[in-house]
Specification:
Elements (H helix, E strand, L loop, with lengths): L6 E5 L4 H12 L3 E6 L2 H13 L3 E6 L5 H14 L5 E4 L14 H29 L2 E6 L2 H5 L5 H21 L4 E6 L7 H11 L3 H6 L9 H12 L21
Parallel strand pairs: 1-2, 1-4, 2-3, 4-5, 5-6
């Protein structure tokens, strides 16, 4: 499953699933760009990778802004080369009852979680089309598969990510580019420990204890799935939803 030398962008990679994914690709010998709106966190993550011997850069990027994406992509191409692997991981969550949902919150969740799929993927595709090889991996959510109370906007946006994946995979299937998505289950991340605990009303450990495996997932579990989907071992897999959820949802 050699990925040595591949050029990879991971969005939302300053912490959590994105960080673990960037670290996994770096260990596989890839050159990695960490994109995140948290500029300081992204810089720290890239510096840690560089200190371990990897080639890594960071950029502050709002993934819903085409101008910021284009600027970061120009730097990526200058310092690392053409994009070969994209992991669309950046996203936000929201916990509130449906009747408390505002248009402003709904629009923000859709912009960050779903519009970013258009903005970032459109930007990198020319490199992959020219090379006749590419991997696009979108991080969706098991909440879109099962439904989740008090998460209507989030689940709807991630359902859109799953549908986006299937449609784009069909369009690009003959080009050498695969498009797949990974819906994480209940994964222990800083975002879940922060916003998630407040939104759920109970601790992460309590929720995990009631899951089929009786524990939360680790960001590294999602990173491993991403590494597989980026590899040549997965070159006949496209439009697929690779659920990594500890048994929360079976398909």
């Amino acid at each position: 499953m050699s990925l040595v030398g591949k050029n990879v962008i991971v969005t939302g990679a300053a912490s959590g699933i994105g960080l673990a994914t960037a670290q996994r690709f770096a260990r596989e010998g890839c050159k990695v760009a960490i994109w995140d709106i948290d500029e300081a966190g992204a810089a720290r993550a890239a510096a840690d990778l560089v200190s371990s011997g990897a080639k890594a850069i960071s950029s502050r990027v709002d993934v819903s802004s085409r101008a910021q994406v284009d600027q970061a992509l120009q730097r990526f191409r200058t310092e690392l080369g053409p994009v070969q692997v994209l992991v669309n991981n950046a996203g936000i969550t929201d916990f509130r009852s449906f009747m408390d949902m505002t248009e402003e919150v709904w629009d923000r969740v859709m912009t960050i979680n779903l519009k970013s799929m258009l903005v970032v993927t459109q930007a990198v595709l020319p490199d992959m089309l020219e090379a006749k090889w590419g991997r696009i991996i979108n991080i969706s959510s098991s909440s879109a598969q099962t439904g989740s109370a008090r998460m209507t906007a989030y689940a709807a946006s991630k359902g859109g990510v799953i549908a986006f994946t299937k449609a784009l995979a069909q369009e690009l299937a003959a080009t050498g580019i695969t498009v797949n998505n990974v819906p994480p289950g209940f994964v222990d991340t800083p975002m879940l420990r922060g916003e998630g605990v407040a939104g759920l009303g109970v601790s992460v450990d309590v929720v995990a204890a009631h899951s089929p495996m009786k524990r939360a997932g680790r960001p590294e579990n999602i990173a491993g799935a991403c590494a597989f989907l980026a590899s040549d071992d997965a070159d006949y897999i496209t439009g697929h939803t690779l659920s990594v959820n500890g048994g929360r949802y079976s398909s």
